[in-house]
User: What shape does this take?
Amino acid sequence: LENLLTFYIARMEQFLTAPGSDPASTVLSEEDKISPKIKKIEEILTKHISGKIPGKILIWTQYVESAASIFRQLSPKFQKMAILYTASNSVPAMSSFKTNPEKLIMVGCEKSMNTGENLQVASRIIRLENVWNWGTLEQGESRINRPLLKDFRKKENGGKGIFYDWVFSD
Assistant: This one.
């Protein structure tokens, strides 16, 4: 029973992030196929970018289809600045995110991005789905929160800090 309950909770969570990708989407209107989370994501992106907060932004999901759906739903303004990270494009996506000053946002599945990568060019992680394991949570956060002698995100160096956002919907 516990496994079945976990399955349905995960399915509901994925549905709230990517309703248009769910098998049940055939009964949804076009408007209902858009994640209720996208508006909040774009508010956070606007605040970060227009506020000239140093550092780039990671948008993490727990499911591959959720990441793809969120990337597709970003407005053209943000999509131009974004990279969709997938296992098949991991090397060029990571390279572009780290070195291209025009690519400020990377959307992807946290499980494939949170181990072994140094992502300290980012100062914000936006999580869209729950992390069920504290080790995974800490591993992901440590990708951007790394000790540096001159860290541009530290308040004492004129930065505004590191930001961890969780976007939930009811």
